[in-house]
Specification:
Strand content: under 5%
Radius of gyration: 18 Å
Number of domains: 1
Number of helices: 3
Shape: elongated
Order of helices and strands: HHH
Length: 95
């Protein structure tokens, strides 16, 4: 619960910067995913306790994996767009 409060508070602070450069976007997505993960783990614990099955844990793991992969894809796509639109450095060697 304490981790959720910390991650949720930081996510609220970073919300205004979620459309920034690739670095800010990455920080926002990671913090958001951590807060979602905190909630999901607590729900999975209730689900495991209530059902006596490990399926809630597996479901949360799948959702968290999907969030991580989609966040990574988003950040890489954003960074590549920044690279394509970056001005060429003067005085550098040509490739």
């Amino acid at each position: 619960m304490l981790a959720l409060l910390a991650n949720g508070g930081v996510a609220l602070l970073l919300y205004a910067y979620r459309q920034g450069d690739a670095n800010m976007r990455s920080v926002w997505l990671c913090t958001r995913n951590d807060a979602i993960g905190n909630v999901a783990v607590m729900l999975a614990a209730v689900g495991v306790f209530g059902t006596g099955s490990g399926w809630p844990d597996l479901a949360v793991a799948a959702v968290m994996g999907l969030l991580g992969v989609t966040a990574g894809y988003t950040v890489v796509r954003h960074a590549l767009a920044e690279i394509r639109h970056a001005p060429m450095l003067s005085g550098g060697t040509s490739r």
